[in-house]
Design goal:
This protein is an all-alpha fold. The protein is 65% helix and 0% strand. It is built from 19 helices and no strands. Helix 16 runs parallel beside helix 18 (265-277). The longest helix has 14 residues, at 12-25. The chain starts with a helix and ends with a helix. The mean pLDDT is 93.
């Protein structure tokens, strides 16, 4: 193609433009991979770095670039190191051989390089990187914390060791970090639920409200655990669980209906309030029958 031919141009601007365009085209630019790999050895550092970036845009089809990108993680130029990590992340799980060096790159003196490595470990779903990503959740740089919270969710269930720190991240000052922590707890799945329920005993009201919000996002997956936790001897915890059930929706209606017969009036009120949040005919019917019964 013309773009591939332009990679050999003597005009730097044309070469840079063609390289960038190929990365933006994505997987359809697979034909350019050999040429871009060759440019990873180009003495022009801009060309080298942008080629690494473009290979990440092409994705898995660029897996032959992994060995050279892996070497470039330790290049003297920070932009090349950043783009090498980006390229490896874009290639995804086909870049697993680079995981050890990406973990080492988490200690890079440059924040952009570290952040790129964090993202790459998430995209590659690097299970062995979980223990190295967990400390990143308390990094002084908010973008590193945000990236780590996101990456752990990409890894999913194998990242369950991060659950306690992700829960603590619900109190992070940065809204984006809190948002990513919520998503990751849900993506990690059922192991998050009992730990979140335990956290409801925390006296911090803000934490309780955020945990309730997270629990409500699990859907029917969390219903059995939440139902079992209703036997908790802490009334505030129980009311928090009921609120989460209301956020789950129609799958929680049978449990909430049963709570309407509870001997504790506060529990009954909480269940009625939770049912009111559920926009479904069955929830409205159950609530209406309960209210009419009290007249």
């Amino acid at each position: 193609s013309i773009l591939v031919q332009t990679l050999s141009s003597k005009d730097q601007k044309l070469r840079l433009s063609a390289t960038l365009a190929l990365g933006q085209i994505g997987a359809s630019a697979e034909v350019a991979v050999p040429n871009l790999i060759e440019l990873l050895n180009d003495p022009d550092q801009l060309i080298c770095g942008l080629s690494a970036y473009a290979l990440g845009g092409i994705g898995q089809a660029a897996e032959n670039a992994v060995p050279r990108l892996n070497e470039l993680l330790f290049h003297s130029d920070q932009a090349i190191r950043t783009n090498a990590a980006y390229g490896l992340g874009g290639i995804g799980q086909a870049a697993k051989m680079a995981i050890p060096n990406l973990i080492r790159t988490l200690n890079d003196p440059n924040t952009e390089v570290r952040l790129s490595a964090v993202h790459a470990l998430g995209q590659i779903k690097a299970e062995v990187g979980v223990s190295s990503l967990i400390p990143m959740l308390s990094d002084e740089d908010e973008w590193i914390r945000l990236g780590a919270a996101h990456a752990l969710g990409q890894i999913g269930l194998p990242a369950q060791a991060a659950i306690p720190m992700l829960i603590q991240s619900l109190l992070d000052d940065h809204e984006g970090v809190r948002h990513n922590a919520v998503k990751s707890l849900v993506l990690i799945g059922s192991p998050s639920v009992p730990r979140l329920i335990d956290t409801l005993e925390d006296g911090d009201r803000i934490m309780q409200l955020r945990v309730i919000d997270v629990l409500g996002r699990f859907g029917k997956l969390a219903v059995p655990e939440l139902q079992q936790a209703l036997d908790h001897n802490n009334a505030e915890v129980c009311r928090g669980i009921i609120s989460a059930l209301g956020s789950i929706g129609e799958d929680a209606v049978p449990i909430l209906q049963g709570i309407l017969n509870h001997q504790d009036s506060q529990m009954r009120w909480s269940a009625a309030h939770a049912l009111k949040k559920i926009d479904s005919p069955i929830a409205k019917k159950v609530l209406s029958e309960y209210l009419n019964r009290g007249r």
